[in-house]
Amino acid sequence: MDEARGTTGPGGTKGPSPGPDDPAFPSHRAPRCRSLDALDAQVIRCRACPRLVAWREEVAATKRAAYREWEYWGRPVPGFGPPDAALAVVGLAPAAHGGNRTGRMFTGDASGDFLFKALHQVGLASQAQATHAGDGLELRGVRLAAPVHCAPPDNKPTPGERDNCRPWLAAELDLLSPGLRTVVVLGAFGWQALLPVLAAAGWQVPRPRPGFGHGVHVTLAAADDGRPPLHLLGCYHPSHRNTATGRLTLAMLVEVFREAAHLSGL
């Protein structure tokens, strides 16, 4: 874990660093992390959004009847996947009784079941099911990330909560950037949240910004540091509503990941 650093105030004096309850905690801490392990350790400490903190902890205390024997994670959920991933998958936020329960992104709910089944079919996941953090699942060349790290009420984070959390995702993508080739974005919220993050992380996002759609493919040039272009793919979110109505089928999701794997050299 990176050591705490003071902030420089008037006259060059150092003051205390923002604590985990401070809205400035993500923007202060995230850029100082030099590894994904260090970043994840700081994400887990974050309490910058009071509404999300109250909700995630209430859910962890009251639980769902089916999981009454579980000890819920009840904290921000960090990204999941190897530090040299060539492909990132960006969703929305942890589910109240999914990632907020298991402590691992996209694990323990119907959306995750659908996602991991597709990743397994393409050879990007070691198994088709994800039930808990110690279930043996390994991702191959893929990192799962989210614009918001805490489970939000009704799966709807506010714009302010999204913006508070943005530095974590920007730092995560920057740390992945030496090998990152492709990002699959699940849903319109993730797409809208990601574009300014990519711009902050050093890729050229066109104006007007490209709109979200299933199957959309946008190629972003790196700003000025010699990195290769980044492929951005849009995909409907594997929410229960989308999968139950057939708006997103398993075959459609597998097709997106096959293309992403090809573009990423996986």
From TrEMBL:
The keyword Cell division does not apply. CDD domains: UDG-F5_TTUDGB_like. Residues 1-30 are annotated as: Disordered. Residues 78-257 form the Uracil-DNA glycosylase-like domain. InterPro entries: UDG_Type-4/5 (IPR051536), UdgB-like (IPR044147), Uracil-DNA_glycosylase-like (IPR005122), Uracil-DNA_glycosylase-like_sf (IPR036895). Gene3D superfamilies: Uracil-DNA glycosylase-like domain (3.40.470.10). This is Type-5 uracil-DNA glycosylase. It comes from Streptomyces crystallinus.
